[in-house]
Amino acid sequence: MASNKITSFRGxxxxxxxxxxxxxxxxxxxxxHFRPHLKWWGLESSVYSRAADVIVYSxxxxxxxxxxxxxxxxxxxxxxxxxxxxxxxxxxxxxRPEVHVCFRKYGFRDPKSYFRRCQYYEGVxxxxxxxxxxxxxxxxxxxxMGNAIRKVRVSLPACDLEEELAGWVPYRERSIDVLxxxxxxxxxxxxxxxxxxxxxxxxxxxxxxxxxQDLIPIMSDAKLVVSTGTPxxxxxxxxxxxxxxIKPECSNVYATLDVYRASRLCIRYxxxxxxxxxxxxxxxxxxxxxxxxxxxxxxxxxxARQDAELWAIDFRDACVSAASGLHRLGDHTDPLPxxx
Length: 340
What we know:
The protein is of the alpha/beta class and about 350 residues long. The protein is built from ten helices and 14 strands. Strands 3-1-2-4-5-6-8 form a seven-stranded mixed sheet, with helices on one face. Mean pLDDT is about 75; it is low at about 10-20 and about 40-50.
């Protein structure tokens, strides 16, 4: 079984006294996404036991849930996957009555997108490559699925960025004109290469890294970033590095640090096949000073909203509510709002 700990909450850094509850962590919570928040609490750990008031279960690294032999202890699920879609296994887990809430990095603004049978944005890109109708995926609309969706809380930080930043680098000091990030041997990446084959400036190609912190030094030397694929920490890194970011449309995605909302202009959206990419890049370079100022404003705004302590309080309160039985987010009977 994965690493398991039982931990007691003993109040917040501000000195506020809260009731003590025992939290059983099931899975590996040592990732750099999660570890800083546990340290912030100053929690004391001992050997895991079934006496916990609340189980915090890692969907990514925990053992099969059935192996826990849980006998009704409230469960808080943590899902650190880089996708807004819900897998079938995760839906089955969230439908369990003992599961109260699921903390995730990403979600959909419009709940009906959860009901599709596939990874939504991957499917959109594939249909574009095959010239299929843009919205051909069947929608599943049943009460158990809606019950799982209501337990989703987009509150988990996608990444921690402050440790990686060395300060703002003006565009005149950046040597890379366009930094392209995508998967090797990918049809979308191949299409991107074709679109930029005649670009006169400096173009650097980078495969999607497994550790996002490796991106920050490279992005800090780039003016424009063009990325393929679905939402990921790459998007946050591009914004906080002060790059003008071009990416296939995904404004229906929601994250705690919401760079995806179209009105914020953190990402300049394009079509999945990059058909107008050359014109977009030319327009940006024709007014690069304006875009640089917007990028710097977005970078500063993003860092100002990155508050680990607020997230820690939200997570702690969810555990306390689960332990006290005050609510279970999936018990609502009101219909989900299906779009505007």
